[in-house]
Specification:
The chain is an alpha+beta fold. It has two domains: 85 residues, Immunoglobulins (Immunoglobulin-like, Sandwich); 52 residues. It contains three helices and seven strands; from the N terminus they run αβααββββββ.
């Protein structure tokens, strides 16, 4: 079966990419002691693997997830509790197995792929961001061998 290009579907799909910047340092302080350190990292790991009940609410959107753990680790290393949350509607094209996320720090600039394997859902959290930097994101749909053209660009400034 030949891969069908997504160009005719991109208008329906592309405009639906949204990006949200988040958070302040304090949301990574899971034990509330005023500092983000190894204790907070251990807490989020325990919550993520269900050793402890999930009570984390990193950035109001991450809960006890892998992106939450990575964000807390980054904060414990002194790099701040920052991330960008992306969401989109699924492509209507048949054969899509996932999406690739690309970002740039300039509108229309050269895009760098930020995911290692196709994102299978309709959301992605970019934990490798810097506070105060504006990022420009585009998506492509993939069948595993081919990619669609890019979606419309969405921008967000990481807090």
């Amino acid at each position: 079966m030949a891969f069908i290009p997504y160009a005719r579907h991109i208008a329906m799909w592309a405009g639906l990419l949204t990006a949200t910047g988040a958070t302040a340092q304090t949301t990574c302080d899971l034990n509330g002691d005023g500092t983000v350190n190894v204790v907070d990292v251990q807490l989020i790991v325990n919550m993520e693997i269900n050793v402890a009940p999930c009570s984390a609410n990193v950035g109001g959107v991450l809960g006890c997830s892998d992106p939450a753990r990575l964000t807390v680790i980054k904060a414990a290393l002194g790099q701040g509790c920052h991330f960008v949350s992306l969401s989109w509607s699924p492509s209507p094209s048949a054969g899509v197995i996932g999406y690739n996320v690309y970002r740039s720090t300039a509108p229309g600039g050269a895009q760098t792929k930020v995911n290692q394997t196709p994102v299978t859902g309709t959301g992605f959290t970019d934990v490798n961001v810097t506070s105060g930097t504006t990022y420009y994101y585009v998506l492509t749909a993939t069948d595993g061998s081919n990619e669609s053209g890019p979606s419309a660009q969405s921008s967000v400034t990481a807090l």
